[in-house]
Amino acid sequence: MIFGRSERGKPPVEPVTLKILVAGGFGVGKTTLVGAVSEIRPLRTEELLTEAGRPVDDLSGVEAKHTTTVAMDFGRITLREDLVLYLFGTPGQERFWFMWDELSEGALGAVVLADTRRLQDCFAAVDYFERRAIPFLVGVNCFDGAPRYPVEDVRQAIDLDDHVPLLLCDARDRESVKEVLIGVVEHAMRQAAQRREALTT
Predict the structure, then answer these.
(1) What digits encode the pLDDT tens for the residues 103-131?
(2) Is the Cα dihedral 161, 164, 70, 58 positive or negative?
(3) Whole-angstrom Cα distance, residue 32 to residue 180?
(4) CA 129 to CA 93: how far, in whole Å?
């Protein structure tokens, strides 16, 4: 850079920054997803699970889980030179849901992670974003050993509207997560364009 301009004579690109939430049930892979793609060291607010929380934390299907997010996860990914996503992972347990309103402020859209072993755990997040008209997609995290179902069967089980995208993904895999993030940005942009069109007709 020379005097604020690139060496090729082009002005520096000021990237658009977008806020994306990552939500879903307890132990569904939100922290893993943020960590898989973040180009910075993710900010995590994890605490060890304790005996005191055992009566309220349903560990069925995630018995090996030893920590939980108590506030949020935060990461950043540059999709293009002019497009940066800030990722905010929400806490999954009901007693921390009060954080969701704060975290969703100014969000372009959201990813709702689902686990086929505990599909009911994603219902609250789906309802939350539907009620607040925040564009979202559902990413079915394909855990090792978890049952695999056709996408349409999962859509029906969640009672998901036809216009809401549903993708299979692996929260551990950077490229898989990038596809999900691109999907939610594109979906949110389509929703915004449709709203603008409706206002002008």
Answers:
(1) 899 999 999 999 999 999 999 999 999 99
(2) positive
(3) 14
(4) 17
pLDDT at 26: 86
Q: How far apart are CA 148 and CA 158, in angstroms?
A: 15
The token pair at 128 is 């939350």
Nearest to 114 by CA among 168, 178, 35: 168
Distance CA 14, CA 80 (A): 11
Taking the alpha carbons at both ends of the chain, their separation in whole angstroms is 46
- The token pair at 63 is 């018995």
Q: How far apart are alpha carbons 94 and 98 in whole angstroms?
A: 8
- Residue 92 pLDDT class (50, 70, 90 cuts): low
Could you tell me if residue 92 is left (phi over 0), alpha (psi between -120 and 50 degrees) or otherwise beta?
alpha
d(CA 130, CA 110): 11
Strand duo 43-48 + 166-169: pairing: unpaired
Write down the pLDDT at residue 198: 87
CB 164 within 8 A of CB 154: no
Tokens 């993904």 identify what position?
A: 169
Q: Where are the beta strands (DSSP E) in 1-149?
A: 16-24, 43-48, 67-80, 83-89, 109-114, 136-141
Supply the pTM of this predicted model. Answer: 0.80
DSSP tag of 120: G
